[in-house]
Amino acid sequence: MNSTTSIITWLNTNAGILSIIVAILIAVIPAIWTFINFLILKNKELRHERFKIYHQLIESLIQPNASGQGPFLDRQIAIIYEFRNFQEYFVLTKRMLEGLKKNWGDHPNFKRLTDEIDLTLQFIENKSNH
Questions:
Q1: What is the domain range of residue 90?
Q2: What angle do CA 112, 95, 64 make, to 5 degrees?
Q3: Of 32, 46, 52, 113, which residue is most buried, by most CB within 10 angstroms?
Q4: Number of domains in the chain
């Protein structure tokens, strides 16, 4: 009984402070919940945006332009380099680049491209082992 009495006495003594704390919590909890939902939504939007960018890079790498000509070599090299920024797609990127390298073979016109593929595959391998 003695501890119960002391708790009640403490609550009575600090009722003003406790009511302020409860009021603050009631005001802050919805704001925190809203902020968490905002972060979740932004994360989904970012993932979707990265998905679109990644697939645009693939399209730009392999699809001929409107005039029917293939993409410029330096642009393709830059795209292959950019694949390093999409860690969430490393498994697919690795398979895709290995397939492209086989298709392009040892053709001298594609030497710089296949060299960049090798560098990107090495980068992916190093990042995947960590």
A1: 2-128
A2: 55
A3: 113
A4: 1
